[in-house]
Amino acid sequence: MTDTSTIASPTSLAARFPAGFRWGAATASYQIEGGVHEGGRGPSIWDTFSHTPGRTAGGETGDVAVDHFHRWRDDVALMADLGLQSYRFSIAWPRIQPTGSGAVNQEGLDFYSRLVDGLLEKGIRPVPTLYHWDLPQPLEDAGGWPQRETALRFADYAGVVAAHLGDRIPLWLTLNEPWCSAYLGYAAGVHAPGRTEPAAAMAAVHHLNLAHGLGSQAIRAVAGDGAGIGAALNFHVPRPADPADPRDLDAVRTVDALANRAFLQPMMEGTYPEDLVRDVAAVTDFGFVRDGDLDALATPLTTLGVNYYSSCIVRHYDGSRPRSTADGHGDGASPWVGADHVEFPPTAPPHTAMGWNVDPEGFTELLVGLSRRYPDLPLLITENGSAFADEVDAGGRVHDPERTDYLVRHLGAVADALDAGADVRGYLVWSLLDNFEWAWGYDRRFGIVRVDYDTQQRTVKDSGHLYAAVIEAHRKGGGTDAATGAEPAGRHT
């Protein structure tokens, strides 16, 4: 367990990380870019979803977001001021192929090329994600991720982007949080495209995995076999309500299969968990898996991206009481396909503004467990952060003590994992900027930099100043590798 009293200062916290450990931040295209009708960009499923009445808080959209499309140079300068060494951003597929296939939009490629060059000029390593949920709307009109064709089109798109940027990109992330894309988009309907079709959700799981594999092959076909490949998975850390109750232990197994192993095992081992297939047998027979798919899914990773925010409690549900809805999905359709026997009782406080519990020990547990299961696979924290209300004082300084505490405690949790032998190579805080928080609109702020949505003014919060101080302390005290950004040959984090 992390003792925060020992890591209160940036210097003492930074000292717990090895030389060469990289620091950065992450964002996503639809959440920050705006400019949805500019530069040749086509519509995405999130444009359609956010413009559908009742889908987002206050009917808010990403049409403008935080205007990164026009302000990217200032944002890169801000990253440099914070001392960031890596920046994870996502490429909007509809900027590259407005219809999701066929003709390539050169304006879109040029936009990201300028961004990559701007980052490199500041000594910031670009880490692009190829899919962070903004599927071109014409592909959804043709069936979306439940259709195999979407995975094939993703591979084409990945090859186009890699051919244009591959000489400057050390690490590609294919997908962000396919759990959300499949289950929240096609089973629960709370994310775009807003469908509630459990069988379609399971088909989407496979075709997202297939897209990762085929996309990875397409990247290496043009960027070389040495191209770094990863995926950013949002791992769940489920714990039983009663560790002595075998039914609650089975609930943990079910959630782990649906949330974690449904993606990690095919990517790493080229197989689907047998228990997952049994759990969803009433919904699908996995007939969407074709010969050769599993080999493609297991295209070797060089890095595993880990997204972590909170843990959860699960227990067996027998129908004798109202189902607990502490998983945040209320009385609507459930994202948990084939898990009618599982419920999520409330977790103990503290909680973030999202209602998620604060559990840094769960972060350590996750990282250590992943490294033990796949000891030869380096880990990169691709997202970790928290939403809290900010306080802006009379002088314009932004105070966010709860987010600052969350950041310190979770950095300490990463250090604990390193001490326990986990191979973690870097940390990307979520998020660089306040932004459009999907169905929550602009009501939840995750940024270490505050954005005034009326003026688009950026202000570094206390949490951002703390993070910059940790990075600077590590640079000064971390040895040659940390100062130069050098890393051993073959590492792609």
Q: Beta-sheet strand percentage?
A: 5-15%
Category from helices, strands and their pairing:
alpha/beta
The total of beta strands comes to 15
Query: What is the helix content?
Result: 40-55%
Shape label: globular
Strand order of the largest sheet: 1-2-3-4-5-7-10-13
Largest sheet: 8 strands, parallel, barrel
Q: Briefly, what CATH class?
A: Alpha Beta
Kindly, what is the distance between the CA atoms of the first and last residues, rounded to a whole number of angstroms? 27 Å
CATH superfamily: Glycosidases
Q: What CATH architecture would you give? A: Alpha-Beta Barrel
Radius of gyration: 21 Å
Topology of helices and strands:
Elements: H1 10-14, E1 22-26, H2 29-32, H3 45-50, H4 68-82, E2 86-90, H5 93-96, H6 106-121, E3 125-131, H7 137-141, H8 148-165, E4 171-176, H9 178-188, H10 198-223, E5 228-234, E6 238-240, H11 246-269, H12 274-279, H13 293-297, E7 304-307, E8 312-316, E9 342-343, H14 360-373, E10 379-383, E11 391-392, E12 398-399, H15 401-419, E13 424-430, E14 449-451, E15 458-460, H16 462-477, H17 479-484
Parallel strand pairs: 1-2, 1-13, 2-3, 3-4, 4-5, 5-7, 6-8, 7-10, 10-13
Antiparallel strand pairs: 8-9, 11-12, 14-15
